[in-house]
Amino acid sequence: MTYPMRDFHGPARSSAYATEAMAATSHPLATAAAIDILKAGGTAADAAIAAVGVMAVVEPHMTGIGGDCFTLISKPGKSIWGYNGSGRAAKAVTAEKLRSAGLTSVPTDSVHAITVPGAVEAWETILRTHGRFDLGRVLQPAIRYAKEGWPVTPRVAFDWPTDAAALAKDAGAARHYLKDGRAPTAGERMTSAALGATLEEIAAKGAKGFYEGRVAEDIIRTTKAKGGFLELEDLASHRGTVETPVIGDYKGVGVAELPPNGQGITALIILNILEQFDVKGMSPTSPERLHIGIEAARLAYSLRDSHIADPAAMKVTVEQLISKDFAKVLAKMIDPAKRTPRLVPPPPGTNTIYCSIVDRDRMAVSFINSIFHHFGSKICTPETGILLQNRGASFNVNDDHPNCIGPGKRPMHTIIPAMMLEKGEVTCSFGVMGGSYQSSGHAHVVCNTVDYGMDPQQAIDSPRAFFEGEKTTVEPTWPAATIEKVRAMGHDVDITVKPIGGGQMIRIEKSGFLVGGSDARKDGLALGY
């Protein structure tokens, strides 16, 4: 594919090119760990787990073994394999119990937001199914950084102070994730000795080293001390699920997403709506493109929040939600000239890591791992150094809603890996971080690729916008004239100081070469050989 030449005078970087294999992550140490595994003969699956293990140490506010993960894995000539590594609510929890405690929602920093962490079981399953190495091999870089220390990178240092006060309220979090009571600064060395020992236990015993024994007991002790409902049996009985991806179509390009309980089909709804408009005829940074994109997202997220949940509880089908005919109805609700009022907004944004890996055999892995909000629940196991996710905050306590909290139920999930296909073959592994933004981000990146022919780095770096409540949030890289025009269209525009999300992408070219990009909004890079 021929891509438009970038402006070499601008503050940007080129996409990475390679012949054999490539890794793209949000942290340079994670990318390096993945490349080392690939060069040692590991598969893309081995490299992905090695990278995510490192990020669990060096980006602790974004991800960790106390969280969940989802992945899509493709091999030439075979169907895409998907895995849902999300955990469930405690078997003993009910909405009535939370309402009786005076709760009208599940607070993000509450012990009731902690669900069973699904990541470690998923890692082991992925390696067993698609890898050549075991956890003992691929976790060695993460163990080394946890025990010996790692340099805090600029974006991590930028994010950390926001949650320092909240971390200080929990003894375990303060002990393991603050430095003398404060957030670390860029270039400082951080260590996580307790987490390193926990990773060593997992490396030696496999997933059982997390879901049973000393580590599991520390998790349950920690949550019970705060009034939680999780039991050892909830951990020991956890299993993820193999999934068949949902494949949509945008102008002849296939887009693969995992089915609910993840929000992936929201991206397909957005793309179906955008397909009703001449996006290609709009400038990539025009007010028309920004306006249509926001309005399509507002409609799609309204549907997400009403219907997407644990599939056993959903009252409408995926097929109904991603119907092209339904998209035509939705598109007619959009006024091309002005903002449409009274559409239900999504919940607040959250945090995640994503990586894309392709190996020499062209196995492609699209992998995402998260503890939900910054530092998850901000509750940390004191002995084992595990930050526990707050994914249960996605639940509500309304018995009539499909996403109501309940025994052993999975919450609606924001983290979503993705792939693009041409003529049935995977040509691109990609993902976008940023909590609720991810579905909108997927649609944005797909349009940048399909409609504008951007290369991976350009598609990821392109200015972003999202909506929060009644406000439209835009990055300052949008042209001033565009921002003023969308204000005139009725959007209440905020120019954000904090970048919107992050992302990685690797394309498999017809030539056999690999082309990758890693978001400049993060510290990472795409690297190949």
Structure, described:
This is Glutathione hydrolase proenzyme. Belongs to the gamma-glutamyltransferase family. One of its GO terms (biological process) is glutathione biosynthetic process. GO terms for molecular function: glutathione hydrolase activity; leukotriene C4 gamma-glutamyl transferase activity. InterPro entries: GGT-like_enzyme, GGT_lsub, GGT_peptidase, GGT_ssub_C, Ntn_hydrolases_N. The protein is of the alpha+beta class and 529 residues long. The protein folds into two domains: 21-85 and 115-242 and 356-386, no CATH class; 260-349 and 416-528, 4-Layer Sandwich (Glutamine Phosphoribosylpyrophosphate, subunit 1, domain 1). It is built from 20 helices and 21 strands. It has a seven-stranded antiparallel beta sheet. A hairpin with a 2-residue loop joins strand 14 and strand 15 (425-433). Helix 14 crosses helix 18. The radius of gyration is 22 Å and the shape is globular. The two termini are 20 Å apart.
User: Based on CA inertia axes, which overall geometry fits?
Assistant: globular
How much helix, percentage-wise, in residues?
Answer: 25-40%
Largest sheet report:
7 strands, antiparallel
User: Into which percentage range does the β-strand content fall?
Assistant: 15-25%
The helix-and-strand class reads alpha+beta
Got a strand count? 21
State the low-pLDDT regions, or none: 345-349
Distance between the termini: 20 Å
* Total domain count: 2
Number of helical segments with 4 or more residues: 20
Rg result: 22 Å
Strand order of the largest sheet: 1-20-19-15-14-9-8
The average pLDDT value, as a whole number, equals 96
